[in-house]
């Protein structure tokens, strides 16, 4: 089992100007989920987190509540919090929502993206590709998620940005839980090509590229009915029927 101290202590003293303690804790746990340092079903012990971050349990509780509202953490009455572990059906629904959201974001990004935002995205893609080249899959995955969040910022629609943050982190959980094969970045440069289309103002091209990109991500997930289960009744159902 992944230990909390090893999973979330990366840069715990880093604090951006204007951030509250709640923000710092939230951001570190959010990043740990995106980087898959906190895999699905990891228990998030409030006392351990409070010790790691050097804050009160009240602050930890508020950060976990915020993450639960984004559906990447599940808070269970009298049992505490854990990283969400979506079922196959929930995974399919999450990915469908992601597809709808990304198309809307792409349309608006083409209309509203600024030169500064385009340049920022290109720098982010360069960091993402460098991380994958170095074999740092966790950082690459996090940067890939940040790229899609930046697209939502380009769209200039606050509700879409909030939804996108939740869906990106939920997708990271799906990848951790259901990805098949090795951790290869088979979609290398798809982000760069997408940015080219957005910068050129070619909405139809950008939408088509986004659909292809999401298709590649979806193709790496095993979401068919034969996916392994951690439910003992499901695992041994053949014996129970005899």
UniProtKB/TrEMBL annotation:
InterPro entries found in the cross-reference section: GntR_C, TF_FadR/GntR_C, Tscrpt_reg_HTH_GntR, WH-like_DNA-bd_sf, WH_DNA-bd_sf
Superkingdom of origin organism: Bacteria
UniProt keywords, alphabetically: DNA-binding, Transcription, Transcription regulation
Domain HTH gntR-type: 19-86
Coiled-coil zones: none
PANTHER family in the record: HTH-TYPE TRANSCRIPTIONAL REPRESSOR NANR, TRANSCRIPTIONAL REGULATOR, GNTR FAMILY
Full protein name: GntR family transcriptional regulator
Organism from which the protein derives: Vibrio sinensis
């Amino acid at each position: 089992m992944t230990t909390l101290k090893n999973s979330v202590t990366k840069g715990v003293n880093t604090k951006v100007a204007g951030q509250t303690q709640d923000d710092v804790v939230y951001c570190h746990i959010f990043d740990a989920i995106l980087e898959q340092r906190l895999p699905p079903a990891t228990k998030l012990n409030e006392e351990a987190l409070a010790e790691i971050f050097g804050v009160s349990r009240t602050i930890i509780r508020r950060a976990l509540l915020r993450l639960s509202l984004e559906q990447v953490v599940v808070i269970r009455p009298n049992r505490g919090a854990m990283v969400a572990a979506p079922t196959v059906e929930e995974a399919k629904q999450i990915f469908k929502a992601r597809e709808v959201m990304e198309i809307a974001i792409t349309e608006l990004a083409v209309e509203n993206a600024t030169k500064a935002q385009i340049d920022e995205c290109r720098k982010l893609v360069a960091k993402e590709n460098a991380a994958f080249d170095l074999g740092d899959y966790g950082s690459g995955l996090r940067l890939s998620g940040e790229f899609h969040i930046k697209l939502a910022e380009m769209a200039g629609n606050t509700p879409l940005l909030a939804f996108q943050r939740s869906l990106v982190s939920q997708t990271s959980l799906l990848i951790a839980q259901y990805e098949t094969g090795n951790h290869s970045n088979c979609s290398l440069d798809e982000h760069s090509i997408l940015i080219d289309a957005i910068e050129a103002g070619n909405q139809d091209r950008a939408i088509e590229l986004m659909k292809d990109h999401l298709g590649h991500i979806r193709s790496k997930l095993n979401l068919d009915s034969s996916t392994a289960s951690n439910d003992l009744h499901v695992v041994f159902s053949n014996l129970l029927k005899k």
